[in-house]
Every structure is written in structure tokens, then in C-alpha cells.
Amino acid sequence: MDESEFDEFYTASFARLVGQLHALIGNRDEAQDCVQEAFVRAWQHRRSLERADHPEAWVRTTAYRLAVSRWRRVKLARRPADRAVSPPAWTEPSDESRVALIAALRQLPEAQRQALVLHHLCDLPVQAVARETGVPEGTVKARLSRGRAALATLLSPDSGATHV
Amino acid sequence: MSDRDPLEQLARLGSGGPVTPLPPAEVRRLGDRRRARRTAVTGVAGAVAVLAVVIPASLYAARDDGATPEPPSSSDTATTSIPPKDRIPAGFPLGLGAHDYGSDGHTEGPGRDVSGTTPTPCNADPLASRTATDRLAFASLAVELEDYRHLSLYADEKDARSVMKAAADAVAACPTEPFDAMTMMWTSRAADTGYESLTFSQGYRDAIGGTTFQLTRVGRAVLMVAFSGEGVAEPATLTPITKQIAPHMCVFTPEGCGPDASSTPTATTPADCTTADLDATVKPLDSAAGSTYAEVRFTNTSSHDCAIHGSSTLRAVTSDGLAIAGNTTTSNEFVLAPDGVATALVRDTNPDNFPAADCMPANVSAWRITVPGSGETIDVDPTGYSTACTKIGNVSIDPWKPDQGDAAAARRAAEAAAASARAAADAAAADASAQASP
Known about the structure:
Chain A: Belongs to the sigma-70 factor family. ECF subfamily. Chain A has two domains: 1-92, Orthogonal Bundle (Rna Polymerase Sigma Factor, Chain: A), CATH 1.10.1740; 94-164, Arc Repressor Mutant, subunit A, CATH 1.10.10. Helix content of chain A is 73%, strand content 0%. Chain A has eight helices and no strands. Chain B is α+β, with helices and mostly antiparallel strands. In chain B, a hairpin with a 5-residue loop joins strand 6 and strand 7.
């Protein structure tokens, strides 16, 4: 991957990946930081990226791991002022259904949230979700089915569970 | 009512607003700088220790580039408000035994302002359960490891004892704790430091990552040593560090350190081997029914002894950077001398043995192996074993063992080289004297 190919890949996919990671982790600032860092690593390891069938999946997985790891450590380090553990500071114009959706996703188990976001937002087939998360397709299907049901309940108009 | 359909909403979520990426050239510059540093550090051809992707890295990126000034180090000016009796003496060696990660990591402190992890099982905070009169902290941070030490000095021994008890009670009372959508687990661990100590780990039921803590009381001070990383560190990683620092805590006892205190601190066990100490190569072995075998050989390229002890995990990494679930084994403790070799057998069940749908084969670019005890990973090039199943684990690793034959061979080779160098020097000397004499 040469400089112009990388720049094109970066420019074309940055915003999309931030949106995807936001849905995965529920915090937009963290999402942007982690995607940024993942692209630095992508260039650093561009030879392996070249061999990758799905460079975007590589960056997304890297960014997701960074986010999860960072979030756990920050929690443990008890830095209450850190935005990683603060309620998300929404910088975009508030869109109620969007906020409700992200809040509901955050309440799902990590594995279900990951499956839902990869399949529905990232538009990956079940097989690709299985590959990206390292579990069998049957497990992905089960997570999707449970996740859909849980999300529907959380977002149903009669449910008081959306906290918005 | 499709606009209420959460899945429709999810599919249309988009990027969620404006983003502010760095210019692409800046991203490449940052990547190039790290690449250059890593090459300089690892240097050795063959197995390259590409450290895995887990850390609060964008915080590091700023430090790496010198954009963030170093934290202030401890100095006596910061302690003028603390009475001398309640102060940790200047120069207390809290950073003893820290591994040097070169430019791949950095250290902070020892200093009063260094921040890091302290244990809080179910929101209890044992170290703060009594008022500390002074504190000192030290951190050594590498790409995927965090070595954090903390020393609290309390008003008297009674307070320090009750802090230890509070910690033991807090861990015992908190086997699990909900953490977001996951379950955090607190587990007591066995370790013998020779002092009054408490060792425990914090991890997650269904996820990687965790911290092992070791608290040690000497007199009215409590030392905490903690390792955080992708894996949960074995107590054997922490105990040697505690054993090095604890003797210096005699200053916090009523008896003091005694006349021969300066000679007391001695490390008995070498520190655990880290990726920086080891060079790894893959040696293909014979095939058996349906399986091929390879030996991964780890050579201690450092100039010091290091210990192998604890669990090691193997995961195959596909060419698009995804780590496939592998297996974990536990190795018995042994010490690897400089140039010594440890070996681990890897079994690769031929992916062709499985129906493609069950296996879902993918190209493999590396085997990612955790160095026992340290939690660090080392990537080795799986030459000749380039396919793995992503759906089932077809690659597994056996415990690490010392390769006695090879260490002896290396020693013999070194002796032979030295002997031939001596012979050459003698010959040169004889030559020179022959020429010098008319």
C-alpha cells in the first residue's frame, strides 16, 4: 500500500469507522481517538495490511480492541474526570432516536452489541462477522437473534428502559 | 412503523456527525516513527516481536512524540509540608527490577504525582481506608503492559495492618462485580514473598485483560506492585519485584535497617523473560497422522538470566490481523541463561482434514504466543503452516521446556570460538614478535 493508496483509504473510511466504533462503544470522542490510533498502526504495519483481504476490518478490529482495553484500564485507574467513563458528551446535534439507540446498545452484552453493529451497521454477512469476532457462525446468529430481541424491548415505546 | 425499527435505525446510523481526523500525512509520519523505533529495538531478523494491539495507546502517542512533558519527578520541595517522620525518604528505590523497554515504553517516577491503578473491589478502596501520610508511585508502561508500583506510608503500624486486612476483606467479599455489560472477577492468588503479603487478580469472565496486585506490609508502610495487560499476570511476575523492594522498607520499621542493611537486599529469582529478552524461530518437524508439528525455539538474547513460569497462549493471526482462538498451557518454572533456549511444541492439525464449512480456513501471517508470566506476546512467522481454521482451533501449543542440549551446544560453540580467538591472538602475537625480531 503506497502513500496515495493509504491516504485514499484513510480519507474514504475514517468517518464511517468512527460511526461504527461509536455504535460499538457508545462514546464518540473515544471512537474517534481509537480509529485515529488504529490508522497510525495500519500505516506502521502496512505490509501486513497489504496482505489483508479486508483492510477496513483490520482497522476496525484494532480500534475496537484499543477502545475496550483503554476503557477497562481507565475504569480501574479511577480517573473520574476522564471522558472514557463519563456520560458521553454529545458533540453532534442531539437526535433523540439516535441517542436512544446508542444508549440501548450500551446496555446489551458486549458480544451481542458487536454482532448487531457488525451485521446491521457495518453490513457484514454473518460469515464475515464470525471471522471478525473469532466465533462460529451459529454463535453469531444466536447473538444476533438475542440482541435484536433485547434491543426491541429496550427501545419499545412502553419501555422505560432507554433512559433518554 | 419502520422508522421505529431499531435495526433500520442502526443501519442508518452513519458516522453521526462531523469528524476531525489528522491529515493523512501526519498519520503516516506517526506510523513511520514507531516503525523506525521498533526496528531499532528488535533489530533481530527472523521472528520479530510485533507487540499486540492492546493499550491506551492514543495517550501514549502524545507522549511518544514529546508533545506531553514528562511528569514532575519527586523532589524534596514537594515534601516540605510533610513532617520528616511521616515522609518517604528521598531516593526510595520503588523502580527496582523494572524492565527496560527502551523506546518502546517509558517510565514515570518514582514520584508523588505518578498516577495508575489501585485495587477497588466492589468500590472499596483499601489503600485509602486509612489516611496515608505520604505516597510514592512508579510506572513502567510498554505497548501492552503496565507495571505500576505504589508505596503508602501510614501514621503507625496499626493503620498499615488494618489496610492489609481491609484489602483481604474487600477481595474476599467481592468475587464478582458487574462492570458495564461484563462481569469483573476478583480472585485471591497464592504467592510467598517472605513478608506479610496479599496477592490477588482482577479479570473478566468473558473477556481478556486484567491486573494482578501484590500488597506487602513492612512496618507502617504498604507496598503495592501491579501488572496490567492483555492476560492476567502470574504472581511469579510480581513476587521478584516485591522481594527486591521490600528489604528497603526496613526504614519504616521501629527497628530500622540495622548496621548491615545496605547488603541485605538480594534478588533470589531472576525477573521473568520478556519479549525483549527472547528471539523466536520456528523449526518444522515431521508430520504425523493428520497433523504437522513445529518447534518454536526461544533464545535468551539478553545478557542476564530470566525466568519462564506460568501460562502461555497461542493464537493464530490471520493475514487481515484477526487473532483466532487458540489454547493456553502452563509451563513449569525454569531459568533461561543468556543464549539458553526454551522450546515449545506446536501442533497444527491440517485444515484440509476438516470440511471447509466447519473450518472456514484463512491465511495465517503469524502465531501470537504469550511469553509465560509476562503477559507479553511475541509474533512468530509460521513458515510452512500458512493456513488455519477460523471456526475451530486447529493449532495448539505445549508447555515451554528448557532445551538442555542446545544450551550446552551453544556453550560449547562459545568456548570453541573463544579458544580459536585465543589461538588466533597467540598466532598474531607470535607473528608480530617474529616480525619485530630481526
